[in-house]
Amino acid sequence: PLSSPPPTPSRRGFLSFGVAAASSSAALFGGPSQARAGTPPTKEELDRIKTGSASINYLLSHWDAETTTCRENGGECKRDAEPVRRYMGLRSTTDPLFQIDKVFAKAKYMDLDPDVLERYYEATDEWNTAVNMSNSMAFISQFGEYNPGGGASEVLKYLEESKKQVILAKKSLDTIMEVLGLEPAT
Q1: For position 4, what pLDDT does the model report?
Q2: SS3 category, 70
Q3: What is the pLDDT of residues 104-149, one digit of tens each?
Q4: Residue 126 and residue 120: Cα distance in Å, rounded?
Q5: Residue 63 has pLDDT above 90, yes or no
Q6: Three-state DSSP class for 98?
Q7: CB-based contact 98:89 (threshold 8 Å)
Q8: Considering only CA atoms, which of 99, 107, 96, 89 is closest in space to residue 41?
């Protein structure tokens, strides 16, 4: 009898085998994230939340001064939304709230009262939404003058919308701090 030739290796078969082998070895030996999994936030990470909260309080208390840039020697002043994005941790890796959602995710490894976990997760979702919206409104305000029908009033309109979102983000951050038992920074 005639036998059929051996199957020709294909990229699909090779990739399927590679993925299966990698998942099996990760399951048996623990993947790279295994070493990091299950660790609660460090004191330094929790301090970032407190510092970020104090920074947002400062921004809201000094909103007009922080969001206004004047030219030297008495030149014209313009509203500027860039500080909003910086205070919210969206501009630099050194900002206290930069990628703070990763710290929030580690809180599930803390010894927290199960009765408050739902409040915590709602607050983190609300935080993420408010940060994204404040970022969007701040970004749009930077181009308000250049849009058809735009001008200083359009910049101010979107800057005020951004402020509303910062207030919502602060409220969520206050809830997060309360659940985590963090006292405001002094």
Answers
A1: 53
A2: strand
A3: 999 989 999 889 999 999 999 999 999 999 999 999 888 877 767 7
A4: 10
A5: yes
A6: coil
A7: yes
A8: 107
Tokens 């922080």 belong to: 66
CA atoms within 13 A on the CB side of 6: 2
Give the tens place of pLDDT for each residue, 166-186: 999 999 999 999 999 999 876
80, 67 contact by CB (below 8 A)? yes
Helix (H), strand (E) counts: the chain: 7, 2
Please report, as a single letter, which amino acid is at residue 130: A
- Cα 166 to Cα 138: distance, rounded to the nearest angstrom: 10
Question: At 22, which amino acid appears?
Answer: A
- Residue 167 Cα to chain centre, angstroms: 15
The token duo for 100 is 């703070």
Beta-bridge mates of residue 69: 78
CA 70 to chain centroid: 30
* Contact of 52 with 102, CB cutoff 8 Å: no
